[in-house]
Amino acid sequence: MPKITFVQPDGLENVVDAEADVSVMRAAVASGVPGIVAECGGSAMCATCHVYVDAGNLDGLPELGDVEDEMLDCTAAERLDCSRLSCQLPATRDLTVRIPPTQV
Amino acid sequence: MTTETSALSGVASLELDPFSDSFLTNPYPAHEEMREAGPVFWLERYELWGVARYSEVTQVLVDHETYVSSRGVGISDFAKEKPWRPPSLLLEADPPHHTKARHVVSQILTPKLLRTLKEGFQERADELVARVAARGGEIDGVADLAEAYPLEVFPDFIGLPKEGRENLLPYGSMVFNTFGPRNSHFERAMERGAKAQGWIMEQCQPGAPARDGLGAKIHAAAAEAGYGAEDQAKLLRSFLSAGVDTTVHGIGNALECLARNPEQFAALREDPALARAAFEETVRFSSPVQTFFRTTSRDTELSGMAIPEGSKVLMFLAAANRDPRQWERPDEFDIRRKAAGHVGFGFGVHACLGQMLARLEGECFLSALARHVDTIELAGEPVQQLNNTLRGLDSLPLRLTAA
Q1: Tens digits of per-residue pLDDT, A39-65?
Q2: CB hemisphere CA count around B201 (13 angstroms)
Q3: Phi, psi values for residue B36, rounded to 5°
Q4: What is the residue range of B225's domain?
Q5: How far is the C-alpha of B117 from the C-alpha of B347, rounded, in Å?
Q6: Where is the 2Fe-2S ferredoxin-type domain (chain A) (predicted)?
Q7: Given an 8 Å threshold on Cβ–Cβ distance, is A70 in contact with B355?
Q8: How many domains does chain B have?
Q9: Which residue in the set B103, B106, B340 is minimally distant from A39, CB to CB?
Q10: A50 CA to chain B: closest CA distance, Å?
Q11: For chain A, which residues make up each domain, given as ranges?
Q12: B137 Cα to chain A: minimum distance (Å)
């Protein structure tokens, strides 16, 4: 099982074992990781599952789609180069992401 | 109710009619029967497949290549029957056409835009709820609140004229009724809706909506994407079809749930920041959109059951939202639960485009209710408005005390 590490704004870490074929967002929600709101449930419509992907993990992620790109312009916390919506990231390998200070 | 297992396929076959008055009045016992019948079941009366468990409903929603929308999201198969109106470019379309049309709207109706609306939407909810609560005596939660609020903020946002807005409700009701079979609800809705249709189509024409509203923005974005006048009108038609009855029912159902669960209303009063969660829980617990159909584009298999090409599959979204395999205490209305992940707005490429707007309206309304109303109680039995797709109320007698 891939391990997804969620780093909270205060530095605390939640490490989650992701089940097969789920998104990083689903893995977080299934384990009750704080800071991933995911209001729309994974349809890329609410921009409340925003994460900053760890610099070393950026290669090999699916490309940013048009819709995700527009949604990232709507995040409550600052958008960075490493910003992604966790509902669009498959949890297929070990990954470390930081959770932004706010989602709404 | 008899359940037979067809010898051929091993699929449970059910006699129940999900569009009968008794089912539509109280669908929950039948929802349970369908969930327990199996992951996939056969509805004899209409000769189609049904799914009522959370897992299968989401699988059908996600696999839009096997379970297509372009053959209609109602009971009728557009490959065999001519639709009663030109198909929607959004609801009744598949990728890649659907992807392009959806992007026209999603690039405009963003969370960023909705944030700019919040203050105004909240002010108007406060004004309405405070005024109705101060009136005292018995009120109708549907006409006085659940219809009044969306009918005020939504058409203004789109840029529709004040005159004729009453046409939005019968039109929406007609569209959702026509996803079902040609029963009495379908026929009556067509009669009532026919009058409204002329007004709706007039408002959808490029140039008709106010310049600064969402309608004009959609027309402009559609034109830029290469859509002609007819398709520009169709894109706006989607909003006027799906944007009013649904939120009216969401707010009406929330009022009923809060009146029936005083401890939940007390929790909301104590912390009005729970308003958004309370609306979300309403959409799970008492889903305004109960069902949608898909059509199989090829022979397929779902949870071990073979489904041939050209089959209609009916997704019971509201039954999935109370599936005990997915939810703890599914039949309890609990505004503190994490209701995210319910399929009341669908899921995947066809997920409700207006869902963030609906949440905004629901949140503003329930926040106003929490701050301006002290107690809310039923003053009589609520009357269901029976619709082949929607679940909502015709009337909701309430007694409110102002805070």
Answers
A1: 999 999 999 999 999 988 888 899 999
A2: 10
A3: -80, -20
A4: 2-402
A5: 25
A6: 2-103
A7: no
A8: 1
A9: B340
A10: 13
A11: 3-98
A12: 37
Q: What per-residue confidence (pLDDT) applies to B9?
A: 62
Tell me B141's DSSP state: I
Half-sphere exposure of B274 (CA within 13 A, CB side): 21
Q: How many CA atoms lie within 13 A of B289 on its CB side?
A: 30
Predicted pLDDT of residue B392: 98
- The pTM of the full predicted model, rounded to 2 decimals, is 0.96
Q: Give me the mean pLDDT over the B281-289 stretch.
A: 98
E-assigned strands of B141-251? none
H or E segment at B152? helix B148-158
Best to test chain B binding among A39, A70, A71, A88 (most B CBs inside 10 Å): A39
Phi, psi of A28 (to 5 degrees): -65, -45
Nearest residue on chain B to A48, judged by CA atoms?
B111
pLDDT, one tens digit per residue, over B319-351 is 999 999 999 999 999 999 999 999 999 999 999
- Contact assessment for residue B342 and residue B289, using Cβ atoms and an 8 Å cutoff: no
pLDDT (mean) for B224-250: 97
- Measured CB to CB, residues of chain A less than 8 Å from chain B are 29, 37-43, 45-47, 66-67, 70-71, 73-74
CA distance A73 to chain B (A): 8
Mean confidence (pLDDT) of chain B? 96
Confidence of residue A20 (pLDDT cuts 50, 70, 90): confident
Structure tokens at B389: 């797709």
- Residues in chain B with CB shorter than 8 Å from the CB of A43 are 345-348, 351, 355
User: How far is residue B60's CA from residue B69's CA, in Å, rounded to a whole number?
Assistant: 11
User: Which of 107-136 (B) contact A at CB < 8 A?
Assistant: 107, 110-112
* Closest to B50 (Cα-Cα) out of B270, B303, B264: B303
CA separation for the pair B169, B192 (Å, rounded): 10
| Dist CA B13 CA B5 (whole Å) | 6
Class of the CATH-defined domain A3-98: alpha beta
* Nearest Cβ partner for A42 among B112, B338, B347: B347
